[in-house]
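Quick question, first post here. What does this chain look like in 3D?
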Amino acid sequence: MTLVAPWELIAVVAAALLGSAVGIFGAAWPRHPTVEQWLRHRTQRRSQGPADRRFSHRRGLASVEARLAGVVQLSLPSSLKAALSSLLTRAGISTSPETAVAIFLSLLAALTAVILALAIASVMPASVAVLVVLAAPLGVVARVIQMAGRRRRAIVDQLPILVDLMALEQGGGGVGARTAMEFVVSRLGGEAALLLRDCLTLSATSGTPQLDRQLEAAAVQLNIPALSALAAVVRIQREEGVSTTSPLGQLARGMRDRQRDELLSRGRRALVTMLLPVALCILLPFVIIILYPALQRLSAAFS
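> Answer (accepted):
Ran it through. Tokens below.
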């Protein structure tokens, strides 16, 4: 029986503790509040009163993350920064690309330390450790892309209901399209309502584009043509002052028709996709069993 050295046992325990901390940190991010808001809130709380020794490690963490984000901002190319910003925005993550990269590098360094400790303690083979470290960035990018796809599908599914409610609100109260949108999104939740609420907030700030421009920018960024149509309806109501109850209702019906066509096409694609495993797993063995006697005779004849 091989005894484990004390330093190997300490390394394994430290790696387990560090891995647990990294897992908790990774599972809790990105959520509200964002990392920037959390760090800013912690810094403001500490600056208001006397420094407490219990929070010295958190203050150090905030300082390290801020410095690392500054270094990343200087070294990150502008094209990559724009791509990361677009991906984070589509996924609904309000953290800046610099802070996201800084947090990712910190987690990757911690993960590398854990894997290295496990490899030194012979708990994990070296090849598996290298594969885990190399697969971590791909896993994070795939997760963010998956979040972006889910958010887009949720917005597309929820948008017709919001537009219908806007049409009812405008027809019943005689209010404008912007006011109807404010009434609807203030009472409902969901990704679509949150997106429209953000567009309303940004358009209400002085020096920012109008609501229709905000909706068009969101449509281009998320690749949702329905938002462009909603922006056109809002622009017509703002410029001409006419009621947009009928256009909003027609827009909601058009969205539902598009969703129905997409579901039908998705079902046809799923049917075609299911034929391949059926053909490989059922038809091919069946054909081989049927033709086996003939193949055996041909083989005997040729031999």
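The chain has eleven helices and no strands.
The chain has two domains: 6-45+57-124, 153-258.
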